[in-house]
Amino acid sequence: TPSAEGRGYVLRRVLRRAVRYGQQFLGAKTGFFAALVDPLVEQMGGTFPEIAEKKEAVREVLMDEEKAFGATLQKGIEVFRKSAEALKAEGVEVVPGKDAFYLYDTMGFPVDLTEIMAQEMGLTVDVKGYEACMQAAKNKSKEDRANRSGVGKSFVLEAEETDALRTKMNVDPTNDDGKYEWKQGLKCTVRAIFCPERGFVENSSEVPDEEPVGIILDKTSYYAEGGGQVADLGRLRFNQMSSEDVSFEVQDCQSFGGYILHVGKRLSKEPITVGSECFCEVDYIRRAKIAPNHTMTHVLNFALKSALGDIDQKGSLVDASKLRFDFSSNKAVPPQDLKTIELTVQSAIQRDLPVHAQVVPLASAKQIHALRAVFGEVYPDPVRVVSVGAPVDDLLADPTAAAWGGLSIELCGGTHLTRTAEAGAFCIVEESAVAKGVRRIIGVTGDAAREALRMGEMLLKKVETLAGSEVAGAELEKEVAELVKEVDGSSISVLVKDDIRKELGKLSEKIKKESLKAKAEAVAAASAEGEAQAQAAANEGRPFIVTALELGGDGKLLTKVLTAMRKIFPAGSVLIISVDDAKGRVAVVAGVSDEHVEKGLKADAWAREAVKSIGGKGGGKPVAAQAQGAGSRDSVEQVHSDAAGFASGILG
């Protein structure tokens, strides 16, 4: 699938070259590339049957990619053309790296496509400049992430720094086997101290107290961020001869070339030196919230494949509050499939399956039937196999056994539960699209899942109670609006949320019908009242009528009622006032007889005068006009008075 990285990006680059060439030089329209799928299947389907099997999926992916790139293609071509012409006019033959990066970052043009376009115009591209801009953007992104993490700086050990550790400082890579052991205070030794601005230092006193540093230990029980799992946090407590408690707060933990960098700040003024001994004090309470989310991510991956068939993992994030899993799919997961997926995970928890983990040769691991691995991922050798339900030795003893197809088996270096029942509960709280052909599921476990399920049941019962009550009209509309807001802001089961929204939809439809009925009744009553007033005025021989009717400020209804009143009262003139409470405005319509027009009463002037006090405006013809202004029911008396006074002044 085309994507922004790895093999997916290689595919995207090839596709975008083809789309650009077809549209720019062949005059092809969007969709031409996707239309090539059928002839491709005809010619190559025999040799590559998978193309025929996935014909529609291939066509859909190509069409999506064409549309996505097509949205910026022509603009990007025009931007490049103007830039290239300006460069050639100045005698410059190299497209600046920043211009190439702009085309990539803003228009989606891979740099190799920009190079081809440059060659077509006799130019080259400053690729090194482009790469510098790309690196600067990545560094900015890292700094932003660092700021969000609370560390405030981007701690990265580049190749030259890991090489210096190994060859110049004789520091071996960190032994992190202890990360799989829980509730232990591992004794370690500081092997290096790192600061981005100063490099490696011997003593933390060389760094200002307020600045974070990175500490490399000979061994650690901290889990460094990786495989979608966030890093462990906690403290390093130092065993130094001091009256002061010397400790270091670990705010992040990253791995670079086998070296685990514990990033954080000193909690005391006592300096930390290379060679100091310390104890790792991992926040195991926090890790105990992360582990169930990681193990259930594996089970969710298995459940998704079981329910949806051939899907690929596109990314994941596991932290203390949730699990997030991205996978390949061009459409939303149907509610019935989501229910099956959620029940599969919940069943694994209820069955209290053992979770096994074992390091084995990569070749042996790959022989295991139904092993799930991330496509394109490079795994170490040996590799760690995590199996939910069966010992890894059993998998290796009979790797092709069909029974393994009913288990979650993955390659993973993360921290996990020992049994699935420790997860307590599971609930899917979100299913959404994150990119073309990529969907995302967010789930919660333990107390968070139980709370999500409890809250969902409570809200559903609340909606069902409201549906069965006698509440109606404006009160029902208010209650539904409050429930919609509450449901949208709640972290509850996505399935329960769907049920609740369906019930709220029924209530909204009920409100709509009631509103239409009430409006029709109000209009009928107002029309009858207006016609009665017109008849009375005609019987009494009055020259005009100024009246306020409950028509909601609806211009069409006002005109309709005005026409009916004028038929009953043809010799007279009529001005109707109506208030739109929702929009906070007062509307008027006026109809004047030909006789009254001759006497000087003109409908347009009459309507404007009526709303003058509320800053209104209007227009029309001498015999019919309308106007409106900002106001409320409190404004009606003044509008009525001004309209009546204006007509009396002319007609007497």
Provide structural commentary:
By secondary structure, this protein is an alpha+beta fold. The protein has 19 helices and 21 strands. Helix 13 packs parallel to helix 15, helix 14 packs antiparallel against helix 15 and helix 15 packs parallel to helix 16. The longest helix is centred in the C-terminal third of the chain and has 47 residues. It is elongated, with a radius of gyration of 36 Å. The model has no long low-confidence stretch (mean pLDDT 89).
Largest sheet: 6 strands, antiparallel, barrel
Please state how the strands of the largest beta sheet are arranged side by side.
Answer: 3-5-8-7-6-9
The share of residues in extended strands comes to 15-25%
Mean pLDDT level: 89
Radius of gyration over all CA atoms, rounded: 36 Å
Number of helical regions: 19
Measure the end-to-end span: 82 Å
Low-confidence stretches: none
Which word captures the global form?
Answer: elongated
Structural class: alpha+beta
Number of DSSP E strands: 21
What level of helicity do the residues show?
40-55%
What are the defining features of this structure?
single chain; 652 residues; 6-stranded antiparallel beta barrel; 5-stranded mixed sheet; 21 strands; 46% helix; elongated
Structure described in brief:
The chain is α+β, with helices and mostly antiparallel strands and 652 residues long. It has 19 helices and 21 strands.
Describe how the helices and strands are arranged.
Layout: H1 6-25, H2 37-44, H3 49-53, H4 55-89, E1 94-95, H5 97-107, H6 111-120, E2 124-125, H7 127-149, H8 159-167, E3 187-195, E4 199-201, E5 213-217, E6 234-238, E7 247-256, E8 259-266, E9 277-282, H9 284-308, E10 313-318, E11 323-328, H10 335-350, E12 355-360, H11 362-366, E13 383-388, H12 392-397, E14 408-411, E15 426-435, E16 438-445, H13 446-467, H14 473-488, H15 494-540, E17 544-548, H16 555-568, E18 573-580, E19 585-591, H17 594-599, H18 603-610, E20 617-620, E21 624-630, H19 636-651
Parallel strand pairs: 1-2, 17-18
Antiparallel strand pairs: 3-4, 3-5, 3-9, 5-8, 6-7, 6-9, 7-8, 10-11, 11-16, 12-13, 13-14, 15-16, 18-19, 19-21, 20-21
